[in-house]
Fold these 2 entries.
Entry 1:
Amino acid sequence: MPVNLTAPDPASLLPVKGVELGHAEAHVRKPNRKDLLVMRLSPGSRVAGVFTQNRFCAAPVVVCKQHLAKSSGIRALLVNTGNANAGTGEDGLLRARRSCEALAGLLGIADDQVLPFSTGVIMEPLPVERVVAGLPACVENLGEDNWANAAEAIMTTDIVAKACSKQIRIGGNMVTVTGIAKGSGMIHPNMATMLGYIATDAAVAQPVLEAMIRHVVNRSFNCITVDGDTSTNDSLILIASGQAGNAEIAAQDADYVALRDAVTEVAATLAQAIVRDGEGATKFMTIEVEGGKDEAECRKVGYAIAHSPLVKTAFFASDPNLGRILAAVGNAGIADLDVSQVQLFLDDMLVAQNGGRAASYREADGQRVMQQPEITVRVVLGRGDASAAIWTCDFSYDYVKINADYRT
Amino acid sequence: MPVNLTAPDPASLLPVKGVELGHAEAHVRKPNRKDLLVMRLSPGSRVAGVFTQNRFCAAPVVVCKQHLAKSSGIRALLVNTGNANAGTGEDGLLRARRSCEALAGLLGIADDQVLPFSTGVIMEPLPVERVVAGLPACVENLGEDNWANAAEAIMTTDIVAKACSKQIRIGGNMVTVTGIAKGSGMIHPNMATMLGYIATDAAVAQPVLEAMIRHVVNRSFNCITVDGDTSTNDSLILIASGQAGNAEIAAQDADYVALRDAVTEVAATLAQAIVRDGEGATKFMTIEVEGGKDEAECRKVGYAIAHSPLVKTAFFASDPNLGRILAAVGNAGIADLDVSQVQLFLDDMLVAQNGGRAASYREADGQRVMQQPEITVRVVLGRGDASAAIWTCDFSYDYVKINADYRT
């Protein structure tokens, strides 16, 4: 079950002026579930995206990049679950484009003003006729107050829908940021998560929006890992509809920082929600690495811990098997690491130093911390001033069960 | 259960002249099990070793390297299970050295003529008094025909003991190669496995033996992975007792190649046995990567597949989820990979090409291959002539169970 995570109260999800959402049950793969989402953006909306680094990126990712590069202005997003349209070659591109054409026709916009997204099983043909057949229902219920349904419509193995909102004031105008995301396996660093959509009604210039999404993703979705696998479809989209009435943010000024931090907060909440709802997760771990020479090596150490199946199974068992954490630090690929300088903490408790167990450490104390649903592992490398944090979950029977049964 | 692997017939394990083995039940961690092994080498034996790259390498690894560097000739090896003496700081070094002193005293040799090895739980003090108390029993039953007991004495979570022998003729003399090894979690590339000992009675000059062990390890223990974690204690030792009567092999000549290939065959059999007995393994997979620009990128692709929890759970489920394999190839970090050139085979069956499923592929055929206990995944990258092979196993409920319960 998700770790300290419940579905958002629909009343807490604030409409973003200029962004309407419509959903449908299109039976893409399974009947009787929301599996299709349309987001319609008002004219003049700005859109920025970051996508998977996987070389086998999915057909919709290819089409998204093309449309973002050449479109006169994105006006709609189309998301289906149940089928990832990945590993589908040339035919997959045709099907992704056909779904864009169909939605463009219904909305009276150009084909390349639509961004397509797919998530689900890989290497099976997208049943595009079902997607197309579901679009009229999506368009019919388009509305600004439909974020809760939208969050549900993009779920696959997620147990809990992920969405949150935040409001800030910019120059006297109330600005809203609302986002949704889905996980929950194949989650890995260095790209967006599976799917994340964050919208604000603030007015933001395009180059500033591009800078903002890079900042945001490196402090949210690029800090999480469930199983170290990188999806073929990972996408994060940041939308600024420009309807809030603020003067357009055109430089990295104080208004920029205020909005950037609000978007980062929403993104980090969504990213952590993906980990809390990681496949089979029973624990939420924050891996803080400090005292590194640079942020890159801190992230390497953090991921070495967060990716270790032995560490993850020990957390599942609430077993303070500190040696596995030290072994992971030793495997992080820092050739000149002086292990005698490394300190390891569980929450605030020093558990290892000088290459071994701390004299003050008592196993019963470690056991107590490990039984918590949320645990911070802090590693001090003792060789510099850089730091990084990674969020991850444990590795349980249910992870294996979910992934062994996924297609059946 | 181990995949197509049974305990070796003791009669098939051939003595190596000049190498005696003695074991004991020393109750290092648990009673009533063989957990201590002494190997005594005749004077003039040559010994070469390769060790873990983990920065938190264990105390016995540090001592082994020191003794190999300065000793006038290694005369004994001492192995305990139940405790890894890793993550134990300065105190761990003292305990490792004390165990060497005790054995040296019993055998009448110098302390630095003993190599110590430990495997088991990490970060707990080695109960060196129990090790020392068990040594007389080991010395008492030293014998050249004791390889089967030796293989059992070094097991931890291994289900099946791992040992094999091979004989070849060199210049009219029969030469024997016999080896033992243990796994079976924390198995990862770029180092020896947990523990492996291979002995031959051939006469081999020291620099030639050093060259041989590098060749051997890169074609055996450095080609396997169970869970991607690197132990703090991995060690492979190659012993040449020089008792076979052959003229000393002092150059990389035909005799060298004959012996090297025999040792490689023994080492590859042992390495594959570790994977077959990988924690929770139900399938044995060979990942062949061909058509790469160099061997390094072929290994990267092979390990990206072999380390993917999603691929490993799909194999556990006998699910031909080819998309997960393609996604792993796409994640291997080859930035300029042209996925339209990649071909994927299950055994001899082409299943994917041109970025998608092969037209000839039928899911029922994939299903049939996936149900086999041994499966070859072949990836053709289509960008060069290099190749590499990786051996791995699947990821099951039992892997989680074994690693969640290990210390309890």
Note: The radius of gyration of chain A is 22 Å.
Entry 2:
Amino acid sequence: MTIEMIEAAAGRLAGHLRPTPLLRSPFLDEIAGRPVFVKPECLQHTGSFKFRGAWSALSALPPGTAGVIAYSSGNHAQGVALAAKMLGLAAVIVMPSDAPALKIANTRAFGAEVVLYDRHAESREEIGDAIAAARGLVLVKPYDDPQVIAGQGTIGLEIAAEAAALGLTGAEVLVPCGGGGMTAGIATALAARAPELRVRPCEPEGFDDTARSLAAGTRLGNAPEARSICDAIVTPMPGVLTFPILKSLCGPGLAVSDAEALAAMRHAMLRLKITPEPGGAVALAAALFRGEALGDGPVIAVVSGGNADPETLLAALSTAG
Amino acid sequence: MTIEMIEAAAGRLAGHLRPTPLLRSPFLDEIAGRPVFVKPECLQHTGSFKFRGAWSALSALPPGTAGVIAYSSGNHAQGVALAAKMLGLAAVIVMPSDAPALKIANTRAFGAEVVLYDRHAESREEIGDAIAAARGLVLVKPYDDPQVIAGQGTIGLEIAAEAAALGLTGAEVLVPCGGGGMTAGIATALAARAPELRVRPCEPEGFDDTARSLAAGTRLGNAPEARSICDAIVTPMPGVLTFPILKSLCGPGLAVSDAEALAAMRHAMLRLKITPEPGGAVALAAALFRGEALGDGPVIAVVSGGNADPETLLAALSTAG
């Protein structure tokens, strides 16, 4: 991954992104005991940063590409669906037939053809490969794809510019981390454009594979019995492409509990007037509740997505945290 | 009110405002049956547009002014408090002693001195006048002040520029309306910079004094027994300064029910990932549910504030609308 690839992705994204300027509240600063700035990517098209990587990848495809295919029941699906629609490409999303009806409906609403499969009896890869071969579609992976990482890295370019405008030096940049595409992209951009800002991956407890992998120096997975409400980032282990970047550029990882993620959602709703989803709130949770693991300066926390269902928002509002 | 005053206010606000670029969701477009763009002023400093007018008024005070005083238990109080703090002015906010503890705490957190009074036994005007005289403070009214109207009008300058960038012509601009300061400011700005956009004031049922006043051609009040959850805009009648502007520039007013305001809050939380307060959601509610009273084109709805308490957000999420 190079800064030039990220700059090129930013060029292709120009005019197609929703601006997500930093937010701040004195009430959050008080909880954290330090200035807390929030990058609200929940306000991005489709409600998450995933639109950036999807557009970056799809807009880099050779002319004449028939369309794309992706496996996802979540934010990547919606990002690929909308980017494909805006670029005039066909999009097929392979989703388990027991995925939430709302997510299936959302993916269709963003213009994609949804192919359902029985995840107990069928292989999504076999189904996807057959469709891709028959229709000449290109697979778009959620994080282990250089153009996807470059697209997510455009968040880092914006953070570098916004931090410079605010005179923020020495800040830690807290990033929700699943497979590591966004974290790797932001870390690459900041290493080139704002090397005094240090990226820290943030994960749910039980899915802290990145934190443990960074500590061990090698890719480790999570226990199979682990569970978390942070569905957007409960990935099995760091990516093949992303982990070497994280290892080279990031500070130690942080992990937060589901209760802390819900409490961070509540504070974001009441103080910043945004609605994160649980996985999107883990970096803000770390900023608010894990200060002992942070340096002395300000933090910039990315709120990566907001595609929570009403029940989850109700649960967050009902927390006492 | 002149466009030059609004442009001057925009100049004084430059570098001190949080950007609030327009949001949109295909799901809201589907409900409304037309493109719906949302200006999310709930993301503004202090959680409402009121910061604009407060800064505009305070930054126009003559050098040497000791400080300001305001009566408000709501968004104007917080806007004045923060603007005064940022400008290095003393601020006294006169609030009823039975105001919600959270609002008192918030106003103090933004740096103001809060003076409580017993609203059953004391006159806030007498208390305020005595403090103002003793300490040389200037009263800042919530809407019937030219510099406040000019500050709110900067929203109109932004909408004009954003609509032009989107190629939106013929849109109706729906604005939550209490005393009419924001509506008058936006209407003045658009009349000068985007005269093809028509402003429509939006109010809660029972507090549709502006709609009825526009229909009658003269200022009318509301029935004393009227009640609404839209606390930010339950003002008694249009302002002395604001009404002539509304009468000259605005289309007919629209009124929505509390249930529609709550449903609009729910859709905003789930689809736009923002949390409006009830009064801040009435224009979006009109866009979504009162299409029969609108023209054929797209609408731009201002979400004017987001200072709802958790119980109100819970009520909104629990609606079926």
Note: Chain B touches chain A through 30 residues (CB under 8 Å).
